[in-house]
Amino acid sequence: MNKHNLLPRESKTLLTNKYAVICIAIFCSVLWGSAFPVLKVTYQELALTPDDYGARIILAAFRFMLAGFVLLIGVRFGLHKPLKLERSLWPPVISLGILQIFLQYFFFYNGLAQTTGMKGAVLQSSNIFFVVVLAHFIYKNDRLNWRKIFGLVAGFAGIIVVNWGQEVSWHFSLTGEGFLILAGLTTAVGTILAKRLTQDINAFLLTGWQMVSGSLLLFAVGFLDRGSFLLPWLYGF
């Protein structure tokens, strides 16, 4: 077992119990699903217009910078592990931050603002499809089979049923539906890369640093676009 992936005994026991893993997966799915309505409400409450790209990027940057720091604090004081990474590991960690934080959420936050919640939920879930297909070509022990195909179809059908009755249109735009599909693709590529990196880096440490590095890029793009969200005095110059 790789020294970077050592977890407390309680965590190992929890993650080897199939019922506990199912419950954790459902809980994480609920949290992720809440992102769509919560972000829509946030945009309304902050009066963010569809063309205010910088504001939404800064919102994403604050979210992931805070989440990254919380994770790193947990690694240091919860898992009692050092936060320092070997120099050779920084390039792939930063690459993952670019993929899974910067690019994914640039496309996700801006794409969601240009489409409905239902279409956003369906299109963003395309990352699952991309992950399964990419894994089929990359990993010999993770090939597509009828069970996986059935699971994908059932999953997409479930998302559509849950959102049934909302306003639906066949309109497609690059900055709306197109951005959400690109968000799903970058998520899938990042997931494949993360699976390889966790063989050398503790998963919590990897996630924390990729969030921090990715959020720094989001801040840079948001400030360059002079987003109006928060810290308005920074835009007085």
Provide structural commentary.
- The protein is mainly α and 237 residues long.
- It has helices at 9-15, 18-45, 53-77, 90-112, 117-124, 126-138, 146-162, 174-197, 203-224.
- It contains nine helices and no strands.
Query: Oligomeric state of the chains?
Result: single chain
Give me the count of strands.
0
Order of helices and strands: HHHHHHHHH
Helical percentage = over 70%
Share of β-strand residues: under 5%
Mean pLDDT: 77
Biggest β-sheet description: none
Q: Describe the global form.
A: globular
Q: Give the termini separation.
A: 54 Å
Uncertain segments: 1-6, 231-237
How many domains make up the coordinates?
A: 1
Give the radius of gyration.
19 Å
Total DSSP helices: 9
What class would the helix/strand composition place it in? Answer: mainly alpha
